[in-house]
Design a protein that fits this description.
alpha+beta, about 25% helix, about 30% strand, single chain, elongated, 31 strands
Length: about 775
Amino acid sequence: MIVFSARGWIVPVLALLLSLAAALVWAGHRSAVERRIRLGCGLLKLAGVLTLALCLLEPMQIGQRARPGANVFALMVDDSQSLKIKDTGQGASRGGLLRRQLTNDEGGWQAAMEENFQVRRYTFDAHLQDVRDFGELKFEGNATALEHALHTATERWRGQPVAGVLLFTDGDATDASSDLATLDHCPPVYPVVIGNEAGLRDISLDKVTVSQTAFEDAPVTVQVEVSVHGFAGAEVSARLIEITAGASNVVAQQIKPAHDEESSLNFRFQIQPDKPGLHFYEVEARSREELSWPASNSREATLANNRQIVAVDRGQEPFRVLYVGGRPNWEFKFLNRAIGDDPQVQMVSIIRVAKREPKFDFKGRDGESSNPLFRGFGKTDDETARYDQPVVIRLNTKDEFELRGGFPKTAEELFRYHAVIVGDIEADFFTHDQMVLLQRFVSERGGGFLMLGGAESFREGNYTGTVIASLLPVYLDRPAAAKLPSTWKLHLTREGWLQPWTRLRSTEEDERDRLESMRRLDVLNAVRGVKPGASVLATVSDEDNNSHPALAVQRFGLGRSAAMLIGDLWRWGLHDESAQKDLAKSWRQLVRWLVSDVPARVAVTAETGADGDPARVRLVVKVRDEEFKPLDNALVQLTICKVGSSQSAATNDLRLVAGASANQLGTYQADYFATEAGACTVEAVATQSDGKMIGRAAAGWALDPAAAEFRSLKPNRAYLEVLAKRTGGQVLTMDALRDFVRQLPQRRAPIMEPWSKPLWQEPAVYLFALGCFVAEWGIRRWKGLP
C-alpha cells in the first residue's frame, strides 16, 4: 500500500504537471517532426517530471509483516515405514532423499526461516515427537497417524503464536478421515509431497471384509479387493490360509488375470468353519509367477501390503431357544429334528399334553388331587399337575430344575434364553404377567420372538388385544377376507429375495424352481395386514391369485419378532427326502435369524488402533445382571494369548483387570499394547462381588500395521490438498521451499507489526527519472532536433 505524507504539495504539483502538459502540446504543434516522435519524446519528458513531482509528496510504502522472532513455525516430518519405498530411477529411498535435504539444508531455506520465526522440529509416525534436528530419522514407524499428530501438536500449541506447519509426508495417512473434524483449530498446514508414483510395481490388499449370515450354504464370506500396479498380463493369486497353533493351512485359492497396468481385482471366498469359537485366516495376494520366489527376488516395491490377518467369530456357547407348544404336533416334530442337527442352537421345549380341568370336576380317587395322567410314575403330588392345571412335559432341559414350574414367571428365568417360539397354543395359557415378561424379553433383553400358525394361534388363539399381540408384526383385530379353506402356494416377496436366510438355493433360477415344485399348503391364519415398519418376506396365494402374508418380521425395541402364519409347513417335508432336507434347512435358518443379534450377559470387543495408535488395543467389556441391566460392581478379568505361536501356551498368557468406565454403567475397559503384529484372543471372565460367576466371553483381533501403512504406495496428493485447504495452507514442492520461505513473513501470522518504506528516498526512483530525460534527449539528437 502507498500513501503520501506531504499532502500540502498536492496543489503545486498538479499545477506544475498541467503547465508542463500544456507546454508540451503547444511545442508539439509547432514542430515539423513526425507525430510519433513528438508523442514519444513528450511522454518520456512527462514521465520524468511526474516522477520528480511525486517525490515532492513523499510517497511511502506501508504494510504488515510477521514480527521477527515472535511467531512459531513448525517443521513436521513423516518418520513411518512407507518412506522406505524407493521410487523408480532413484538410488535412495524417499526417506533417504528427504533426510539428506533436511540435514544439509539444501537451498538454505531453514536458515532463512529461523531469521524470522522460532522454528520447532517434530517427527511423527504413530506418535508425535520433539527433535533437535532431523539427522536421526530412521523411517521405522508402523503407522502414519498424520491427523493424530496434527491434533496433538495443536493441543500443545494452545495459546501460542503458531504461524503454520511445514509438513513433509507422502500423504498416505493411516488415520485419514473424510471430514478432518479433529483439525478445526489447527494452524495453516503447508504439505510438501514426498515421492513419485510413476513406474512403481506393486500388488496390495486394498480392503478385506468378513461377513456372516444365517444363510446355511455360505455362513462366512471373505471379500478381498486387490490393487495391481505394473503387472499387466500377469496372473494374480489370492489365497485364504487358516492359522492354527503352530501351523497354517491353505483353505481356498483363486487366480485372476490383471489385464492393465492399473487393475483392481475382487476375490470372494466362502468358508464354513466346522467348529464354533474364534478362527483366524490370513489373506495373501501375490503374482502367481512369484509365489515360489524368495522375497528378495520379488519385483514388487514392497511385500508388506500383500498379507492381512482377519478374525472370524463363530460363537462360543450354543444359543438357547424356548419352544412353547399347545400339543405335540407335526410342526414341532420337524422343527425339533431340524434344530437337533444344528450345533449352535439348543431348543428347550414345554409341550402341553392336557388342558386344565374345572376345579369342581374331580375324576380321580378319593383324596387324590393330582391328575390321573401321572398315576403309576411314582411322582408325588408336589411334582404333578392338579386337575385345574395344564399337564406339560419338558424336553431337552439341562437339569431337572429347569422349567420345573412351567413357563418362566421371572425375568431371571426367561432372560436365560435367546429366543422364544410359541406354537399353536391359546393366549389363556399365559398369565398377564407372563405376557408382559415376554414383551420385556424382546424389547429390553433384545431376544427373538416367533409365533407359528395353527388352530390356536394369532386371532384364532384369542391373542387380539393382548400384550403379545403388540409384539407381532401383523394386526389381529379382524381377519382378512380370505378364501378358507383353500390350498396355498408359497412365494417370496422382494424383501424376501434380499434376505439370504429365507432362500435355500445359491441361484435365483434354482430358488424359483424349488418354490414352484413345493407342495401346496392347507392351513393359514389370515390377518388384516402388517404393521408399519414390518416387512413381509413371504406370501401365499390361492387358486384365484389372492395374496396374503405368510411370513412377516419386524424390529421391536432391542429385539425382533416374526409371525409364521402358515399352520402346516410340515406338509412340505412329506413330499420326498429332498423336501425334508429343505424344510429342516429352512427351520434352522429362521431360528438362526432369531438369535443372531441377541446379546449375552457378558460381551467383549477389541477396538484396534485406539486413540490413533495402531499398537493399542482397547478391550471393552459390557456386563449385565440377570435382568440385563448394566452391572457396575463386577470384577472383570482378561486373559490374552497369542495365536499361531508358542506364546499361546498358558504360561505366557497375559492377564489384565478391566476397570469400570467413568462414562457408561456396566462397561469395563483395559488397554493392551501389542509388541508385534499377529493374531490374539482375549477371554473375559466377570464375577460378582461375592465371587459368583456372571459369565465369560471371548473375542479376537489381528494387528498388522504394515497392511495399512503400505496399503497405497502412491503419494496421496489429493488428500494433502484437502488438508491444506481446510487449514488455510497450500501444497508445496521441495524446489519451491526457498521462494516460499522468502515470502513467508508477508503472510498472515498471529503476531504482526507495521513497516514502512520511503519511496522518495530510493535511488531507483531518481535513476528512473534521469533515464526518461536521457532517453528523450537521445531521441532528439538522433533525429537532429535542437
